[in-house]
Design brief:
The chain is an alpha/beta fold. The protein contains 22 helices and 15 strands. The longest helix is centred in the middle third of the chain and has 53 residues. The protein is elongated, with a radius of gyration of 36 Å. The N terminus is likely disordered.
Length: 631
Amino acid sequence: MSGKQGKNKYRGAKNPVKTLGRLLSYAFSGYKAATFFVVLFVILSSAANVLGASRFAPIITELTKGAGADIKLIYTNVIIIACIYVVGVLSAFGYNRIMMYIAQGTLKKMRDEMFSKMQYLPLKFFDTHTHGDLMSLYTNDVDTMRQLLSQTIPQIISSLLSLLFVFAFMLYFSFTLTLLITVMLFIMVVLIKIIGSRSAKNFLKQQRSLGALNGYVEEMTEGQKVIKVFCHEQKARERFKVLNDELNEVGSKANTYAFVMGPVNNNLGYLQYVLVAVVGFILIVSGAQYALLSAYSAAQGGGIAVSAGMLVSFLAYTRQFNMPIMQVSQQFNAIVMALAGAERIFEMVDTSPEDKGGDVTLTYGEYEEGVWAWKKPREDGGHDYVPLKGDIRFNDVVFGYTSEKVILKNISLYAKPGQKIAFVGSTGAGKTTITNLINRFYDIQSGEITYDGLDIKSIKKDDLRKSLGVVLQDTHLFTGTVMDNIRYGRLNATDEECKAAAKLANADFFITHLPDGYDTVITGDGANLSQGQRQLLAIARAMVSQCPVLILDEATSSIDTRTEKLIEQAMDKLMEGRTVFVIAHRLSTVRNSKAIMVLEHGEIIERGDHEQLISERGKYYQLYTGAFELE
């Protein structure tokens, strides 16, 4: 766990502008028509808010005339204001509905792309990321995208357009008061920048801390039985408290700065409104109304009444001018969280996929009816066929998960068609690593691995793995029926073939005693089955695959001795004509192997059949007689 968490170091956004640009391009590229209407409706909504306020001035001007006021003109302007605001409301409704449609479509596309990409990532990626952290990408990080696309972006666009329209009308009404507004705006922007930079840093930390916490919770949930068996509840609580306190600390800082921004801007907005009202009133009553003269005053002929009407409209614009700034500042935390989430998502999407391998493919019946064969392309465009026999050889193979730590040292071995090769040795000796190299889950540093004379690097990975049936020590079953889980080994297998495989694996007996037999639904990774029953299903799944080569990694580790004997008999039938690699701690299961490899510290220290190794009285003899126990 600690190793995986160590990878999740806090990092700020490498390029927030680039990340935002990529996100917007990703979101709107497939919705050109919808984007056009969003922009149109946002413009109409923003313009309506500004134009509505501009009609207050003539109404106030007429009202100040007392008995001489033109009532018809007042009513006309009231109706115009009502119509303008109706258009604004409908436009706002329109662009919000469209943005919700775009947001949901974008999130669907993003999840599809993430899941599709995840299927082709190398195992190394999953070795360095916890399951909970990956789940956090699909939940917390994607949810920040939803808020950004459906609420924040349209709000920001609307606010910016409103600012431009309002600023233009403010200049039209009064240059002097607009200058005062500009000074206050500069102060607000400086404060937003100072508070926002500190908030952004902590929001980025919050997203990564949340991923680490989710990873730990997921791991502890899966391991509850182990935790209780070894009475590690207190240790688990202590570790959770550390991670939770860390999340609480960075989350508190992030939200504190974000929430401070709103009250600061609100108070500055009130101060700005009061200053405009006081300065405007002083200029009017002191007879200096000409200091307020602008295009509007000139058009209306000036005068106290005109200046009073202008001031009322200007004060309305002042409120409208402050509102977008406050709205944008309130959305700042959503922007930062979304960028943090987007960066994590794009980081996963940009991870180099597992290379597909070479150009040699696997065919069945193409070379000869009922025969597996490798299809090797020639330079002239034709193909050569190499019958798949299961001849696998290691020639001076050196491998390490990192360049600093070598796991396997100059491994050389061969498995001829139909042979059963066993690997025994202490934990960490490199047994499972060898089988992982056959699958090309990892690539070797030097040496060569050949399959029927072909370098496995020349074989397409999908085809290579199709030729290998694998039963792992850690069995994983999927939600679905028992039949579905067996058929997972070969999706086009018939029900009869699945049942035959189950009988061969001696799983048919317990399956037929389940409530619905082969139609019994398995949930929670087989929580309603015993560990042994789950392992039997995994063996049946490998059997139905009809793969020419089998890899059994502690395949019988969770099965009782009686069932183990039955499986050994079934395995003997299954191995006819197949190459089998077996990893086992129970040495009784490897006695009939053609060759037994004893590994220690990444090297083969003994090799031979059971009788030969016993006669040599070496490490295998000590393991078999109990003089030395496997760790």
